[in-house]
Amino acid sequence: MISVVIPLLNESVLVGRLLKEVSKNLRVTGEAFEMVCVDDGSTDDTVEKLLQFKKENPELKVVSLSRNFGLQPALTAGLDYAKGDFVVIMDGDFQDPPELIPQLFAKMKETNADVVSAVRSERNEKYSKRFYINLFHKVFKNVSEGNQLEQTGNFGILSRKAVNAILKFSEHNRYYPGIRNFIGFKHEFIVYDRPDRLEGDAKMGTRKLFSLAADAIYSFSKWPIKLCLYLGLLGVVVFLAAIVYTLVSKFTGLAPFGWSSTFLAISFFGSVQLTFLGLIGEYIYRIYKEVQKRPIYLVKEIYE
């Protein structure tokens, strides 16, 4: 059986058409299937639209969360409740084309892979959003541990073995594409052009994108701490150079600069220390969130 996990937040405008397209393309595979829609605390009539669709499509399962927990917890809930031997994960904004589902499944069967990711060759979105996302993927690929695929999001298909491996992760601050690459197993990909959103408003604004990027880098890279080390070493070098300059100036009769040199030195070291404290604070906050061991999500109702 194939399960399709779709997290949704205020998508009543397009959810009916999306599910029709997903259902149609799942039937092309010739396999039994289910659609697991996770409502992430929608404030519109998304749940009502889902239940209306479910009346004629019993293969739909609706998991309604008690409030808005965010995209990554909603994906986790979907994986928890998906029962298929193969699990497709896709966004609920119609930017992950449903017609690629048979292609993902065929690629997995053909290559005997456990993970098949959809890699974006082109992004037909606003320039500013494309710029930030492309910059993140470049930085993340170069600073993260492991072999990270560029231009991949949530869209892809997993074997049951891969799903079970991902469900063993218990961290609160999670980045699904990073976890998907971290588990290993045989990983293949297909390439597609990602369309722009046709209806509704984007749920991942700039602030949320930056927050997700920070979670990804802090979770899968040691470069933030390394950067602190390198800046600290640079500060030591500058400090030693200042000592040498002061001694040479004294013995040669050249007086060192007055308040300006002192002000610059204090500003430099003060800014470095504040940067370190802010970075350490980010790690402490994340450690604190993990130590609390709060549930990643809470379910209000399940319709199946």
Automatic annotation (TrEMBL):
**CDD domains (UniProt xref):** DPM1_like_bac
The compartments listed are: Membrane
Any transmembrane segments, and where? 227-248, 263-285
Q: Which UniProt keywords apply?
A: Glycosyltransferase, Membrane, Transferase, Transmembrane, Transmembrane helix
The yes or no answer to whether the keyword Cell membrane is present is no
CC per GO annotation: plasma membrane
What Gene Ontology terms describe what this protein does at the molecular function level? glycosyltransferase activity
Q: What is this protein called?
A: Glycosyltransferase family 2 protein
